[in-house]
Amino acid sequence: MNTTGTLRVSTKLFSYAGTKDKRAITCQRVSANRVLKKKLAGVNLSDRSSIRIGNMEYAKSDLKLGELQGNRFDIILREIHSESKEPIETIVRNAAESLGRNGFLNYFGLQRFGRGSASTNKIGAAILRKDWDDVVELILKKDDLDLKDQESLSKALRELPRYGTQTEFNILKKLTRGENAYNALQSVPYVVSIERLHFFYAIFSNSTLEHRYNTRKLYVHATQSIIWNLAVTERFQKYGLSVAKGDLVAVKRDVVIKDENAKMSNFNKEYEIRVVTSEDVAANKYNIFDVVLPLLGYDVKFPEHDVGRTWYESELNKLNVSFEDLGSRKNRGPFSLGGTYRHAFQRALDLDWELIRYSDLDETLSKSDVEKLRGGVVVVAKEVEEESTKMDTEEEKTRLALRIAFTLRKASYATMLLRELTKCSSQTELHMRATKKAQSDQSEKKAQSEKKKEEEESSGASSNKTDG
Fold first, then answer.
1. DSSP 3-state assignment of 176?
2. For a tag on the chain, would you pick the N or C end, based on fewer CB atoms within 10 A?
3. Shortest CA distance to 153 belongs to which of 167, 129, 165, 137?
4. Using the 8-state DSSP alphabet, how is residue 104 labeled?
């Protein structure tokens, strides 16, 4: 249910420090400009709303994107198992201790790049080289489409599904009327839903609204991110967990630069970037968590070793993009990339975990903040044995879950921490298949149990009839 719709106020009045995962129960601070506490509290009266508001207080200023220190996660991993003969408790403990000690590679998560056949980073590369025909072909997902052949365009338009293809329809409609690819992209209306990822109007229009300016670089930032992921992999393979000569490190400034007009990234306002010398290495002056790698741009330093400017340039060339395409201080366009930095390794704070035995896949194993506020009762490991009257002891112990809680600094992905902890891929499709298999196994097991029960009841009835 839409909170702003319930309150009958504009979405422009609300601001926050960062977005949260869609598929999760989340809690965050939000500022509402000139909205009274009493009106906000009205949201809690709605039985149809899944949102609850609390801890309200008046402040002097709104929240702004980026003004958060990090995020706290409480995650349940179900169907935990191992092929090792070692006790599962020992395996989890060793993995958690290693994670706390060595951290994890601070990759951008797969959600950064989209799930369709045309990844956002591929579209971003086409935008950087201003190949608008390629942008259109990637988004329409038709390799055999000839943008200069009216018959080919008309056929593609006729074959479009009726629903969920408004963006594609608008593009093809313009193309069939003789418009070029760039103009066709400009014609697409602004789409509110961020899930579609097709903000063509926002990307190609001259709108100066801040939220549209942020989405305008959605695709090129994805290209930055995929190259950064490749860079951190290369750096780890060459130098491991040691700080190497030529590495870049971020040193916290004594005073953060708050000048909004300063021509530097937010990261540079908070940190000073230095190149590691051989003397620094000998003195163990820095640790691996100080090491950063640049996100491509015209205004960044590069490491002075094998994963330096030359390496980045070679990766750009694979995408048919050059450094000149990134822009410059004197030649900044709507898709120019100044660049910034990102820590190569990250470590979880306040890491805590426990193993929970359970029986039913739909069993709730952890309380959300809303459930805590409502006084909801949740059955956890210790309560299963006490409260179970429906299942025998063996049934209770058939499934095992891991509850893990931790804090990550902003811009780090929990999926990448879990990838390191479990040594499993973070691809959504793999986990969806595993979930479906577990659900299928449970259904089959329940069916067998019910059949056995019916047979026992039938056998007992027959026995009583014979005795009579």
1. helix
2. C
3. 137
4. E
